[in-house]
Amino acid sequence: MHIEAPSLAGLPGIRHAFFTRRGGVSTGLYASLNGGLGSHDEPSLVAENRRRMAEHMGVPPSHLVSLYQVHSAEVAVIEGPLALADRPRADAMVTRVPNLALGIATADCGPILFADPVARVVGAAHAGWKGALTGVIAATVDAMVRLGSERNDIVAVLGPTISQPAYEVGEDFRSRFSAEVPGSDVHFSQGREGHAQFDLPGFIARRLSEAGVRTASLLGLCTYADPERFYSYRRTTHRGEADYGRLISAITLAA
After folding, report:
1. Architecture in CATH for domain 2-163+199-253
2. I want to staple 138 with a disulfide (CB 3.0 to 4.6 A). Which of 4, 19, 104, 211 is the partner?
3. Overall average pLDDT of the 17-44 stretch
4. C-alpha distances in angstroms, 142 versus 134, 149, 255?
C-alpha cells in the first residue's frame, strides 16, 4: 500500500508515506488506491481511498490536506484542515501544525516530502518539469525557513517519479532548460532524431542541492516502468487510455 524512505522513517515525531496504487477500492483504469480529486473516478471511491490513507497517517480524513495543483512555484502555509473547495492553487505546502497530513498528488511528476525534526516543520511539493524549473523546490525550502527551519536540518526525499529512459522531450524543451539553467545539459541524453531523454529526478536533486538541502535522497522508482504499483500519465497517454489515477505522497507531524 505504501513505501517509506529510510531517511524519513527514522525521524522522531514524523510520519510519512509514498502511497502506491495498491490497497484501495477503485476499479478499472483507477485500480485501486486512486487519490486523485481531479480524476473522473467515482467520487465516493476516491473518498474511501483517501480515508484509508488518512487512517494510515493517523489523522481524520478531513486532515488529509490537498492542493489544486497548477504546475507553479507557489507554496501554501497550511494552518488547519481545508474544505476541498478551498484548496489553494499551489504546488507545495508547509506546516508546523501537528496532525495535518500534507498530501501531494502525482502520476509521473516528482513528489518531494520535506521534514525538519528539530524545528518540527514539514513540507510537500509537486515538482514536474515546470515547477522544478521555475522554483517550487527553493520556494518550499524558503517557506520552511520562514516557519523556523534551518536548511541544514531539513531532510528531503523524492518519491516515485518518471525516469530518464521513459521521458522523451523535444529540442525546444531542452533549449529552454539550457537558456534558464546554465549547465542543465547534463540532465539530457540524446534520444531519437530531434528528441532527448530528460532526467527529471536528477534535475530535482540538483535543485534540492541549490536550495541548501544537504540531506536529500531519491527512492529511484519509475512510475512509467511499474504499472503494478504506480499510475503514470505518460503511460496512459501512450496506451490511449481515457484517464489515469493519482498517487498520493503524504507527511505529518505527530502530536
Report:
1. 4-Layer Sandwich (3.60)
2. 211
3. 98
4. 14, 9, 24
